[in-house]
């Protein structure tokens, strides 16, 4: 019964999205104000409908209605309530339903917070968002319907994948979706601008805040994904350059290029075409990422079960969205003339350089991800190892680290490169000195780690100097930028240390045996069986001590969920400011109670995620820029004036 | 040349040099890290990269797994039902590693007979098998059918 | 002119990408082959659920039979249960259940509720035979001839369609083969 209502609401949502796609756009072309005005109410209606659909799916899980196929496939009677709720988006069908829910929320937010746009602008933007919503709602309805019924209903469900019975997994996908979908706002603005054949500062300023917000979500989504992989997959890795991870990283890279170019194009009549193109690329990569994850056309340990029909569907959506936008771009971009001249020695040039670095990174990683497909089309099977990505990313980040302080240092419009270099030079030596100190403090670092640590100190030192020397009271934009850049520094330091100074040991331990790893003594006190909620576990007990002083007792588990075939490794971690001690159980080797145990020492790993959090915080702080508020108020006044004149 | 032209030329040059360097690095890095995927049949026909890592995929042969006592070393055979290859691995096997299930291993051939794996990947859940492993089995199928006919 | 050409670059790259993705999607197959077809059924020895015997693979030689992997915890098994029942009642083939990774009490309860169509039920509590058969998930159904060779396998639920189009022709064939050796 409830499921049929959900199904019905889904159909209503699709209808509403189609109307939202058509009416305001027809209004725009016919210059009909009342048609254009339908955009906002339709956007709110769409949100109410889609959100109710989602709420119904959640209730089906809470009420354990196993007549619904999706519910029995991903939950069971024994599943605790909190995981029953989160199981809603634990697998494909529910997660695309969550995608469209988030999409509808963004559309409603755009409708609400767009007073500075004229009616003709907002109607085009909402209509383009309507196109996107239509495609994805149709995808849910026709290719991934979560409301399908199994008759007769089973008595119990198959249970949720144990990997997903976890806090990180509860919040990681929604945040990532907020980011993915958020990029559609910048995209729709770009397309709306191409349709009208013009774009001005006001538009870009308006879209910049949305892009910032989307980028912040994308950042936190990726961090959480990395953190989850670290503690939940049980094997201590934080980033695998897996196609599915790359799928989330690509839009982030393009988005980073976009927010930096927007900083220029909202101030000057420059880089307009480039801004539009980057916005199209960023969102297209979000859809491409979805395709890679959902179609199963790429080898990845994370991918969802493959379904070619779904693959084709998303591919068609991608072709329509990105293909349509790029065709429009080819036809119209020359109308978006960039009139202002740009001085070579200026902040503008540096920011352009930044966007080129990030776009290069995007394409290098995209190529590495797609290369196996190109070879497969020629009948050969290959894969690209993660060292490729690691090396390429490292090399591309060198110019990034060099340019970053320069870009932040140089003035808008016109500056002297020599004076910027002069201001920064002392910090080059400070960073060098700190790197030498770090080199000896950590018993030597290899080339890449040294470069990474140096980059971290160099960016930190210059950013702090720029904060201290900032003339007058710093505005939110500047504070946001500095926080984000300091985040880059913290991230670089943490990543270099974790990657190059970690210790990994696979050991065969007998009960009672003590071994030493990196100055810590690990005493293995055997394994006992325990029963918790909906699983059984073999729990190891390992006492960690340093210099004879007990530090902590760790309890890694090997879990067995009765309804799932797979056992699951649950690591136990002793987190710390400067290092994590990480222990996980392999398997029992023999009848004498000997176990394979993996021990990791991960220095500064938390700094990496903290750095990412700072980047996110920076993007959020920049939203509160007073300058933007003031300019936006002027725009709102102007729009109101125009409206009054019309009526 | 006018100053603006000079500046423009500079910019174009800078971009060109950057793109050139990037392409060069890309190609080298790519060549070094590209890994071929081979099936047991291909390996048994000596068709594999020598002294270079590649991925070997298929099924873990039934009752082929053997532990070397008092170490984390294991040996097992990877098969596509037409041929099998002996694989040695030292370390902790993934949770989903099981005889009779799909597996992908990364490593080198130590000699004609032995593949030494640095990494072992098993399938992620019961609906999923590494696509490469499935493809290897798929590719070996016609051959396998033939041998079957002969034996009848 | 030159400008138009540059503006077309992103579109062309993108079209290439779409073509690549499309070609890949069509070529990329993840359909699982059934490597066991044509081979002898792996050796096993299991207690039975009701008849209190221990049976092995040789006890089934002499007539074609069907092995249906099920568990009381498996909702799809319940979904296909009426069809298994119909097949067993048709008398065309001997239907044996493999109760997979299940508590016997649960299985008995389940069979009481939904009916027991099986001629015999093997209890594979540890899941060893299921592993030997390469079972990916319940339900799965194997068709085995009178000599103990696996003839066919269906992974997933039985449907009217796959019974009529795939299983029945093979069953008819085997039954004829058994009568005219």
Automatic annotation (TrEMBL), chain A:
Asked if the keyword Cell membrane belongs to this entry, the reply reads: yes
Q: Where in the cell is it found?
A: Cell inner membrane
| Main localization of the protein described in the UniProt heading | membrane
The record ties this protein, via Pfam families, to: CcmF_C, Cytochrom_C_asm
List keywords of the entry alphabetically.
Cell inner membrane, Cell membrane, Cytochrome c-type biogenesis, Membrane, Transmembrane, Transmembrane helix
Q: Which residues form the Cytochrome c-type biogenesis protein CcmF C-terminal domain?
A: 315-626
Q: Which GO terms describe its molecular function?
A: heme binding; heme transmembrane transporter activity
Tell me which residues make up the Cytochrome c assembly protein domain: 89-295
Alphabetical GO biological process terms? cytochrome complex assembly
List the membrane topology term(s).
Answer: Multi-pass membrane protein
* Entry's transmembrane regions: 6-29, 41-63, 96-113, 125-144, 177-197, 209-229, 249-265, 274-292, 312-331, 351-375, 387-408, 420-442, 448-468, 475-495, 604-624
Q: Name one GO cellular component term.
A: plasma membrane
Q: Give the family per the record.
A: Belongs to the CcmF/CycK/Ccl1/NrfE/CcsA family.
Biological role stated in the UniProt entry: Required for the biogenesis of c-type cytochromes. Possible subunit of a heme lyase.
Q: Know the name of this protein?
A: Cytochrome c-type biogenesis protein CcmF
TrEMBL record, chain B:
| A Pfam family hit | CcmE
The molecular function GO annotations come to: heme binding; metal ion binding
Task: Cite the binding residues for heme.
Answer: 124, 128
| Highest taxon, organism lineage | Bacteria
Residue ranges that the UniProt entry lists as topological domain Extracellular: 30-152
The GO cellular component terms are:
plasma membrane
* Disordered: annotated span: 132-152
Q: Which residues lie on this side of the membrane: Cytoplasmic?
A: 1-8
Q: Where in the cell is it found?
A: Cell inner membrane; Cell membrane
Q: Which Gene3D superfamilies match?
A: Nucleic acid-binding proteins (2.40.50.140)
Q: Which GO BP terms, alphabetically?
A: cytochrome complex assembly; protein-heme linkage
Cite the entry's keywords alphabetically: Cell inner membrane, Cell membrane, Cytochrome c-type biogenesis, Heme, Iron, Membrane, Metal-binding, Signal-anchor, Transmembrane, Transmembrane helix
Q: Where are the transmembrane segments?
A: 12-30
How is it placed in the membrane, per its record? Single-pass type II membrane protein
Task: Give the UniProt family note.
Answer: Belongs to the CcmE/CycJ family.
Functional summary from the UniProt entry: Heme chaperone required for the biogenesis of c-type cytochromes. Transiently binds heme delivered by CcmC and transfers the heme to apo-cytochromes in a process facilitated by CcmF and CcmH.
Protein name in UniProt:
Cytochrome c-type biogenesis protein CcmE
UniProtKB/TrEMBL annotation, chain C:
Q: Which family does it belong to?
A: Belongs to the thioredoxin family. DsbE subfamily.
- Keyword Transport on entry: no
Q: Which InterPro entries match?
A: Periplasmic_diS_OxRdtase_DsbE (IPR004799), Redoxin (IPR013740), Thioredoxin-like_sf (IPR036249), Thioredoxin_CS (IPR017937), Thioredoxin_domain (IPR013766), Thioredoxin_ResA/DsbE_sf (IPR050553)
The source's superkingdom equals Bacteria
Species, as recorded: Marinicella litoralis
UniProt KW keywords: Cytochrome c-type biogenesis, Disulfide bond, Membrane, Redox-active center, Transmembrane, Transmembrane helix
- Please report the name of this protein according to its UniProt entry: Cytochrome c biogenesis protein CcmG/thiol:disulfide interchange protein DsbE
GO BP field: cytochrome complex assembly
Q: Which GO terms describe its cellular component?
A: outer membrane-bounded periplasmic space; plasma membrane
Q: Which GO terms describe its molecular function?
A: disulfide oxidoreductase activity
């Amino acid at each position: 019964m409830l499921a049929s209502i959900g199904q019905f609401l889904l159909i209503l949502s699709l209808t509403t999205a189609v109307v939202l796609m058509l009416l305001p756009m027809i209004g725009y072309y016919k210059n009909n104000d009342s048609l254009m005005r339908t955009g906002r109410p339709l956007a709110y209606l769409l949100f109410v409908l889609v959100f109710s659909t989602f709420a119904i799916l959640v209730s089906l899980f809470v009420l354990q209605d196993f007549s619904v196929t999706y519910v029995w496939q991903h939950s069971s009677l024994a599943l605790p309530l909190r995981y029953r709720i989160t199981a809603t988006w634990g697998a494909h069908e529910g997660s695309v339903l969550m995608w469209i829910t988030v999409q509808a929320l963004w559309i409603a937010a755009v409708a609400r917070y767009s007073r500075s746009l004229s009616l003709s602008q907002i109607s085009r933007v909402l209509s383009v968002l309507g196109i996107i919503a239509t495609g994805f709602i149709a995808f849910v309805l026709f290719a991934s319907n979560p409301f399908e019924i199994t008759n007769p209903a089973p008595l119990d469900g198959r249970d949720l994948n144990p990997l997903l019975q976890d806090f990180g997994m509860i919040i990681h996908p929604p945040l990532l979706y907020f980011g993915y979908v958020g990029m559609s706002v910048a995209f729709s603005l770009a397309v709306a601008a191409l349709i009208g054949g013009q774009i001005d500062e006001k538009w870009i300023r308006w879209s910049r805040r949305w892009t910032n917000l989307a980028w912040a979500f994308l950042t936190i989504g990726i961090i959480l994904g990395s953190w989850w992989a670290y503690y939940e997959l049980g094997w201590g890795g934080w980033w695998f350059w897996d196609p599915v991870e790359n799928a989330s990283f690509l839009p982030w890279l393009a988005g980073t290029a976009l927010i930096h170019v927007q900083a220029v194009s909202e101030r000057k009549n420059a880089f307009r075409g480039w801004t539009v193109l980057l916005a199209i690329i960023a969102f297209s990569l979000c859809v491409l990422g979805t395709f890679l994850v959902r179609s199963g056309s790429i080898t990845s340990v994370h991918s969802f079960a493959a379904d070619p029909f779904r693959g084709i569907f998303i591919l068609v959506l991608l072709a329509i969205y990105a293909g349509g936008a790029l065709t429009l771009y080819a036809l119209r971009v020359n109308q978006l003339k960039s009139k202002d001249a740009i001085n070579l020695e200026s902040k503008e040039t540096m920011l352009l350089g930044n966007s080129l670095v990030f776009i290069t990174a995007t394409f290098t990683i995209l190529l590495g991800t797609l290369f196996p497909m190109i070879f497969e089309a020629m009948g050969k099977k290959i894969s690209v190892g993660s060292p490729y990505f690691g090396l390429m990313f490292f090399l591309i980040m060198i110019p990034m680290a060099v340019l970053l302080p320069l870009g932040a240092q140089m003035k808008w419009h016109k500056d002297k490169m020599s004076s910027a270099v002069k201001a920064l030079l002392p910090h080059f030596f400070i960073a060098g000195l700190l790197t030498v100190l770090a080199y000896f403090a950590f018993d030597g670092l290899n080339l890449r780690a040294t470069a990474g640590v140096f980059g971290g100190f160099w960016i930190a030192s210059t950013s702090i100097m720029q904060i201290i020397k900032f003339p007058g009271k710093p505005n939110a934009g500047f504070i946001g930028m500095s926080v984000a850049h300091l985040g880059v520094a913290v991230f670089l330091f943490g990543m270099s240390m974790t990657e190059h100074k970690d210790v990994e040991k696979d050991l065969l331990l007998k009960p009672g045996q003590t071994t030493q790893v990196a100055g810590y003594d690990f005493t293995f006190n055997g394994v006992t069986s325990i029963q918790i909620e909906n699983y059984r576990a073999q729990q190891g007990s390992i006492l960690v001590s340093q210099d004879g002083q007990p530090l902590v007792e760790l309890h890694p588990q090997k879990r067995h969920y009765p309804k799932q075939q797979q056992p699951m490794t649950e690591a136990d971690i002793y987190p710390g400011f400067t290092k994590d001690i990480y222990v996980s159980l392999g398997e029992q080797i023999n009848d004498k109670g000997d176990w394979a145990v993996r021990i990791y020492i991960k220095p500064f790993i938390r700094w990496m995620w903290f750095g990412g959090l700072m980047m996110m915080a920076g993007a959020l702080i920049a939203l509160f820029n007073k300058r933007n508020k003031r300019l936006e108020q002027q725009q709102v006044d102007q729009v109101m004036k125009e409206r009054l004149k019309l009526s | 040349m006018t100053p603006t032209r000079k500046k423009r030329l500079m910019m174009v040059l800078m971009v060109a040099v950057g793109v050139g360097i990037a392409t060069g690095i890309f190609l080298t890095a790519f060549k070094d890290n590209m890994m071929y995927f081979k099936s047991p049949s291909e390996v048994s026909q000596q068709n594999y990269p020598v002294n270079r890592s590649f991925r070997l995929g298929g099924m873990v042969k039934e009752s082929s797994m053997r532990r070397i006592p008092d170490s984390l070393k294991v040996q097992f055979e990877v098969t596509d039902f037409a041929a099998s290859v002996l694989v040695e691995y030292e370390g902790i096997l993934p949770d989903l590693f099981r005889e009779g299930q799909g597996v992908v291993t990364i490593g080198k051939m130590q000699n004609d007979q032995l593949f030494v794996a640095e990494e072992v990947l098993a399938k992620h859940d019961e609906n999923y098998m590494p696509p490469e492993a499935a493809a290897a089995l798929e590719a070996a199928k016609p051959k396998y059918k033939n041998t079957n006919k002969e034996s009848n | 002119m030159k400008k138009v050409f540059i503006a077309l670059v992103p579109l062309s790259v993108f079209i290439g990408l779409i073509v690549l993705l499309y070609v890949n999607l069509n070529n990329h197959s993840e359909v699982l082959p059934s490597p066991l077809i044509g081979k002898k059924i792996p050796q096993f020895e299991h207690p039975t659920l009701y008849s209190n015997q221990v049976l092995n693979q040789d006890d089934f030689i002499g007539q074609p039979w069907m092995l249906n992997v099920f568990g009381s915890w498996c909702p799809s098994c319940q979904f296909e249960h009426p069809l298994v029942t119909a097949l067993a009642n048709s008398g065309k083939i001997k239907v044996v259940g493999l109760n997979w990774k299940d508590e016997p009490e649960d299985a008995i309860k389940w069979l009481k509720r939904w009916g027991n169509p099986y001629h015999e039920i093997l209890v594979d509590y540890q899941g060893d035979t299921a592993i030997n058969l390469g079972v990916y998930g319940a339900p799965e159904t194997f068709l085995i001839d009178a000599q103990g060779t696996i003839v066919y396998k269906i992974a997933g639920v039985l449907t009217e369609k796959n019974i009529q189009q795939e299983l029945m022709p093979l069953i008819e064939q085997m039954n004829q083969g058994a009568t005219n050796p």
